[in-house]
Amino acid sequence: MKIERGAEKRKRAMGKIGPNGLHLPLDLSLSSPLPVCVCLNSAGFLPLSVIAAYVLNQLTSLNVNTKRDSSGSLGSESRMPSHSQSEDPLRYLPFTSQIDLNFWHKLSTKKLNELKLSEEPVKFRAEYDINHNIPRAIASIGYNALREENYPQLSLRGVLFNKNSIESFKRCDKNNLVKEAVIKMVEAIISGEALRHPSEHLCPIILLSFADLKKFDYVYWCAFPALGLPPQVKFTQVDPLRLINDDDFNEDKMNRIAGISEGKMFVLLDRITLEELPLEEVRRKCSTHVYVVFADPSGDANFPGWPLRGLILTIAYHMPEIANSEHTGVYTVISLRGSRIHNYNKSRIFRVRLQKVSLDSEFMSLSKFVGWEENQQGENKPRRLNLSSSMDPKMLAESAVDLNLKLMRWRLAPDINLECVSKTKCLLLGSVTPEYKKETSEAIKQLEDLIEDHDAIFLLLDTREARWLPTLFGAAKKKIVINAALGFDTFLVMRHGVGGSNELGCYFCNDVVAPTNSTRDRSLDQQCTVSRPGISQMAAGFATELMVSLLSHPKRNDAPAESPVEQIGDPEGCATDLVGTALNNSSVLGPVPHQIRYFLSRYHFMTPNSTAFYMCTACSPKVVSEYMSSGFDFIFKALTEENFLEKFTGLADMHAITKDIDIIALGDSDNESSMSNGSLLG
């Protein structure tokens, strides 16, 4: 058997000369084609047995088992197609979906505000890339997937089916969804619309989902619908994928191909001139006259990506009638991979043999409809994603606040005790407080338990009398109580004292009467808190900051009040210090005032202090002691018996003493009598 002598360049590429003159390859990787054996002995002949043994050895080393499913896609154990005399069926690497977490947030918003109860299909876009270093083909569904314009060129047209319940998700006919998508694709192929707009029709995607907006729990299943060919139809791979090199195209030609094809999913090129042709030319051009170029998302060295599947079916339907007996044509396919900066150095080239198909009703009845994606466990089931920890608005708000607080410790307030602040349990009593309709004793017990279970109590109530019971509970349980009261253009924010060294008073310590029904015999505008728009936000901010400053103070709730020599908004020192403490007792956030009073009409602040009143109806030792001993009975009397608190605290006696004091007032009659007596004033 005589074999031609190879060129020196090919010798260097193949390996070294063996002892019998046989050219032995040095590197036989799985992606290498069968090496060419060259005889260099003097006679120019090599025994047939030597050649046969060598070829058999190479065929054995290259024949690796490949696992495939019936749809024409590859399973997880895929390697390289066997190279033998028979041609392998054309196989494709399926897409793997990758959904951005922000997409679910966008879908949740759209479901809540737009879709509501509608289960109508929604258009979206998935995109893919050809410049990656992983073997999988990734179809990404990002934050902007639901936009209807300005989508990437390498994108898949998708339809989203979002169900209202998990039961509706389960009942949905998944096979029918894929079948309908494939039928639409086939209709576009037959009409020629797929040739004019291939990226719109040849590689669809379906996303079936159920979004539990309450729990931020998402169940979803992606499908990339495709047609499984009938058994009698064969699309085969004539040779394996291999890297494009100078033997195929030099650098200049490759640059031209890349420049024409960049950013396009499918391109048809003239084989001689390398000019781009309309895809409709496949109806007229023979397979030997064109190159088929496609943007390949596959990173596998041996198999093309999923987008080629729809294009191959389109070409097989529209290609010219073949004169040969098998009615087949062999097309050269360029799989464009990599990036321009690297001259698309990962691109591959291979040939496929296509058999002309009819796509008639008989053909479709024998075909399969495939495309549903496997889950992470390799099962043909949907996937589940729970984002409650990352998408819950409460947790998002907590995360943002936590970041803001921790940045304070870098430079601005390195000594602030953030753990103390974050662990403080706050109770807000105001317009959002539940209205208790049970018996009075049960309602009072529930309020008492709430105050017992929290560290800081905010009194954000409309009337004075509504503040009395929480003030009493807070004083008895030594809780931080922050009080906020609004006027039309004024507000008061104060902290209640808890006895001890600071001797600070509560909201009722300046009163000499017990709280009564302040809304009785009042018009509507007097019954409601009518205030200027900015007052409530300002008061809320000061109330929060007052609590944080108090928590940051070494003495916490026993922190002494500010003793201003000259206060902001009070340059003349009009706000009198009644307690007398120095500024060196401040917390890490500054002095902690007792009260903050603001007058919006004058843009004027005051931070006065007031001492605890021993006859106070809410926090005096006598009242607190009686509550601790008598409990509900004492509270019930205070709520039902008129003047009970005034009599109990001694305010009634004080009123009586005041009435007995003779106050000499100078009236008009006194003036006249004095003048008639000849007396002159001052």
From TrEMBL:
Gene Ontology BP terms: autophagosome assembly; autophagy of mitochondrion; cellular response to nitrogen starvation; piecemeal microautophagy of the nucleus; protein modification by small protein conjugation
All residue ranges annotated as the THIF-type NAD/FAD binding fold domain in the record: 442-555
Ubiquitin-like modifier-activating enzyme Atg7 N-terminal domain boundaries: 90-391
One annotated Gene Ontology cellular component of this protein: phagophore assembly site
UniProt region (Disordered), positions on chain: 67-89
Compositional bias ranges of the Polar residues kind: 67-84
One Pfam family matching this protein: ATG7_N
Signal peptide: none
Superkingdom in the source lineage: Eukaryota
InterPro entries: Atg7_N, Atg7_N_1, Atg7_N_2, ThiF/MoeB/HesA, ThiF_NAD_FAD-bd, Ubiquitin-activating_enz
GO molecular function: Atg12 activating enzyme activity; Atg8 activating enzyme activity
Name used for this protein in its record: Ubiquitin-like modifier-activating enzyme ATG7
Organism field: Varroa destructor (Honeybee mite)
